[in-house]
Amino acid sequence: MSFWSGKQHRLRRRLAAAVGGAGALLAGLLAPAATAATPVTVTVSASSPTVLRNTSVGLNNVMSEISDQMWSEDGHWMKQTYVGQGMSKIMRWGFGTSDWDPFKQRPYPTGWWWGGANEATAQDTFTFQEFIAYCKSTGTIPLIMVPWESQTYNGLPGVPLSQILATTHRMAQYVRDRGITNAEFEIGNEAYFGDQFYTDAAKPTPAFYADQLPDFWHAIKTVRSSFKVVVGMDSWNPAWDEALDKQYQYFDIVADHIYPSYAKGWASFYATNDLWSKYPKPVWDPAHPKPILLDEFNVVWPGGFASDLGGSLASLDDLLQAGQSNLFDGIMTWPDTYTYGGGYGNDSASPAYGVFDYYAALDGQTKVLTPDTLAHTVFNTAVLPLEENATSSDAHVPAYAYSDGDTTNVVLINEYATDQPTNVTVPGSADHVDGFTLAGQSITDTHPTYSALFGAGAAVTGSDFNVDLPAYSAVVLKFYRDNAAARPGHFATVSPHPDQSSVSSYQDFSWAKSAGATNYHLTVSTHRDLSAPVISQDVGDVTHFQDVSTQLDSATQYYGQVTASNAAGSRAGPVNVFRTARVAGVANHVVNSGFEHGGSPVYTAHPDEEVFSQFWTLSSDAHRVASDAHRGAYSVQLNGDGQSVTQHVFGLHPNMNYRLTGYVKTDGGAVSLSVAGAGSGSTGNGSYTKISVPFTTGANAYSADISCSSSGAVGQAYCDDLTVIRDR
Question: Which domains does the chain have, with CATH numbers?
C-alpha cells in the first residue's frame, strides 16, 4: 500500500466513489443468470494431490489507526477473531508508522505523520511494544516495517538515515531480548513508487535503495542471524529488481503487492474467476532465487466495492487461487481496514481510512469486521496441506478441495442470485460432514456472517452428498470419519520449502499443523536417508522450531523431515532438501569493523562520526582518524594511557567458541584487544600486528563487549579491522 499526495487523495477518492457506484451497476449487468440451468455437479479427485506452501494467511494491521479498544473490544475486533482461534501465524506491523519513532512512541518531527483519526496524539495506537508482546504470547511471527520513509532525501524534511539505521538495530535488539527467534524486517513500503516522498523529483532510485541494504542487513543480522530482511520487488520495473539482485546476499525475502483493477469493480469478479487474468502474477525473474511474500493482498481495496458480502466472496475466491499457485512463502490480508468510502482521510471533516471514522472514535464505537476478515477466516479454517483436484460443471460455482489424509474440505462459491442445488462427490470413506456458510441478505450486505449451514455431523452415505448453496455465498463442507483415535493427518513443511537455497545456518523450521497431532519430531541430516542426523529432537505441540545450539554448515545440502505423532500413531511429513549459504557480512559480528562509514553513499551527506557513534563508543582521547589505517581509509587512534574503543557485539549464540581478531600498533606502551570477562591479548609493536583472542560464550549469552585499549607509556596507538567470528 502506498502513500498518496493530497492531489492523488482527491483523485483516488473520486475514482473509488465512481467505482463503488459503477461496480454495483456492472455487477447487475454482468452477473450470471439468476439460476443455473441444471443442478451443479462437483467432483473431487484424490489422485496426485499438491502439497501447499500456505495453509493459512497472515494479518496486516494499520498501527496508526488501531486503538487498544479496537484491538480488544468484545464482538468487534481482531483479538477475539484471530487470537482466540489462533488463525494468524504471521502479522505485519508498521504500516502507518513510516514517520513514527517506535521507542518515543510519537511521530518524528517532520510533518509527515498521516495517522488517521489518531493523528492528534496517537496515544491509542497499537504500538511496537504491544505488537511484540502479542507475537510473543501467541507464537506469531512478527513482520516489522522499519521507518525507512522517515529519512531525509533530496532536500525533503526528515531524519538522517543513520538515525533510522540505529532505530532498526534497536528494534531488532528489542525483539531478540523478548525471546523471539523468528522475525522479519521489511525495509520500506513500496519504496519503488516514491509516493511516500510525495514528488517524483524525490523518488529514490533503484541504486540508492539497493546501496542501503548492506547497512540494514548488518544492523539486523548482527543482532540475530535468524532474523530475515525483506525488500520490495516491483513487477513493473525490471531495473528495480536488477538493482536488488546485485545485492542479493543482503536480503532473504522479496515482498510484492497485488491490487484490483479499479475500472472493473464487481464486473471483474463476475467476468472471470481467474486471479491472474485480473492481476499481474508476481514473478522474481533475476538470477538469484528468493522466496516471495505477498504481504499485501489488496484485492478488495480501496472502497466502494470492498465493504460487503461481494467483497468477501471476491477476496476468498482470489485468496484460494493465490494459495493454490504455490508462488508465495506467505500471503497477508488487511482485515483491519474498513474500506467503505475509499481514500485516506486524517482530519475531523472526513471519514478516516481504516476501521472507524472520526465520529465513531469520539463516542467509543467500533466498526464491524471487514470482508477480508471473513475471507481470511474461511481460508484459515478450510485449507489443508494437500490440494486435491476439484472440478465443477458450472464456472459460476467454482470449487476447491483440500485434504490432510483423514479429512477432506470442499469450498464452493455460489455466484448466483438464488439457492443452487449441488451434488458433491468426494473420494474416501467419510461417514460424516459438517457444513458452514459465508452469506448475507444480498451481495451488497455490509454485515455478512460465517456460520453453520446445517447441524454438525450430518451422515454421509456413499461418496455423494447433495447440498443447496445459498444465494451469493461460500459454503465449506468438511467430510471426515467419526474416529477419535485417528493418527495425525497429512501436513506440509512451510520453511525451508523444497529446494530452497540461501537458508540460514540457524534456520527456523516451520510446518503446517497436523490434525490430531500432540507432538512433532524434527530430523535434519546431510544424508537423504536421514542417517547420522545433526538435529533429531522432539519439539512438542508447536509448528516451528529453531535449534540455536546447532549451527548448520554453510554452503551445504541438507535433508529435513518433520514427523507428527499422537497416541494412535505417527505420520511423517515430506523429506525436503535445502541448501545453506554463507552470506556476506554474517560471519563477522562486529559492525563497521574497519571503522569505515559502511560504504553507503547516503553517509556522505552526514558527518562520519554520527554514523560511527551508532555502534562504537570512544573514550575521551580516542578518535576515528583518516590515517594510519591497516586497510581502507580509517582507523581509531588512542592517545595516551587508558584510552579505548568498544562495541557491544550481538548475534552470538550460547556455549559457542568465537575468536576476536584485530590489527594494532603503538609507538610506546601496549595496545590490547579484549573480550569482557573472557580474556585479552596485547602487543607493543610499532607496525600493525594481528592479535587473536579466543573466547567461549556463556550458557545464556547472545552478545559480548569487545574493546581495543591502550596502556603504559603510550604516545599514540592504532586499532583497525576488528572481527568476531565463530571459532571452528
Answer: 6-34+57-366 (3.20.20.80), 501-580 (2.60.40.10), 601-726 (2.60.120.260)
Asked whether 341 and 305 are in contact (CB, 8 A), the reply is: no
The pLDDT of 555-560, averaged and rounded, is 86
pTM value is 0.67
CA distance 523 to 450: 39
Which neighbouring-strand residues pair with 263?
none
pLDDT the model gives residue 490: 74
Report the distance separating Cα 465 and Cα 416, nearest Å: 20
In 3D space, the residue among 295, 417, 364 whose CA is nearest the CA of residue 77 turns out to be 364
Residue holding cell 495517522?
Answer: 115
Distance in angstroms (rounded) separating the CA atoms of residues 168 and 101 = 10
Strands 253-258 vs 228-232: parallel, antiparallel or unpaired: parallel
- Structural element, H or E, at residue 637: strand 635-639
Determine the Cα–Cα distance for residues 207 and 197; give it in Å rounded to an integer. Answer: 17
What is the distance between the alpha carbons of residues 694 and 103, in angstroms, rounded to a whole number?
36
Kindly state the average pLDDT of the residues 52-78.
Answer: 62
109-133: pLDDT as tens digits? 655 554 443 443 444 556 788 788 8
CA distance 510 to 519: 14
- Grid cell for residue 680: 585479552
Contact in structure between 325 and 283 (CB atoms under 8 Å): no
- The rounded distance, in Å, linking the Cα atoms of 524 and 567 is 24
Q: CA Rg, the chain, in Å?
A: 28
Instruction: Identify the band that residue 149 occupies on the pLDDT scale cut at 50, 70 and 90.
Output: confident
CA separation, residue 319 to residues 251, 276, 515, 556, 641 (Å): 26, 12, 22, 35, 66
Q: Which residues pair with 100 in a beta bridge?
A: 107
C-alpha span between 284 and 486 (Å, rounded): 41
By three-state DSSP, how is residue 98 classified?
Answer: coil
Cβ-proximal residues to 711 (8 Å cutoff; 6+ apart), any chain: 641, 642, 669, 670, 671, 672, 682
- Tell which residue, 239, 237, 218, 238, has the closest CA to residue 227: 218
Grid cell of 377 as nine digits: 477466516
**Nearest Cα to 65, choosing from 367, 332, 312, 308?**
367
Cα four-point dihedral sign 381, 50, 433, 471:
positive
By C-alpha distance, which of 589, 671, 583 is closest to 630? 671
* Residue in the structure block whose three cell numbers are 512451510: 494
| Residue 725 neighbours by CB under 8 Å, 6+ apart | 587, 588, 589, 658, 659, 661
Is 414 strand, coil or helix? strand
- Rounded CA separation 84/78 (Å): 9
Give the residue among 490, 453, 454 at the shortest CA–CA distance from 473.
453
Q: What is the DSSP letter of 149?
A: G
Nearest CA-CA partner of 422 in 395, 392, 450, 449: 392
d(CA 589, CA 578): 25
Report H helices in 290-441: 309-324, 358-362, 371-382
Instruction: Please check whether residue 691 is in contact with residue 717, taking contact to mean a CB–CB distance below 8 angstroms.
Output: no
How many C-beta atoms lie closer than 10 Å to residue 10's C-beta?
12
Residues 621, 615 contacting (CB under 8 angstroms): no
Nearest to 554 by CA among 485, 502, 596: 502
* Residue closest to 132 by CA, chosen among 147, 122, 142: 142
- β strands within 241-300, DSSP E: 253-258, 292-297
Phi and psi torsions of 523, nearest 5°: -125, 130
Whether residue 54 contacts residue 331, with contact meaning beta carbons closer than 8 Å, is answered with yes
Q: What are phi and psi for residue 242, nearest 5 degrees?
A: -65, -40
User: Strand pairing partners for 259?
Assistant: none
| pLDDT band at residue 239 under the 50/70/90 scheme | confident
DSSP result, 468-503: EEPSSEEEEEEEE---TTPPPPP--EEESPTTEEEE
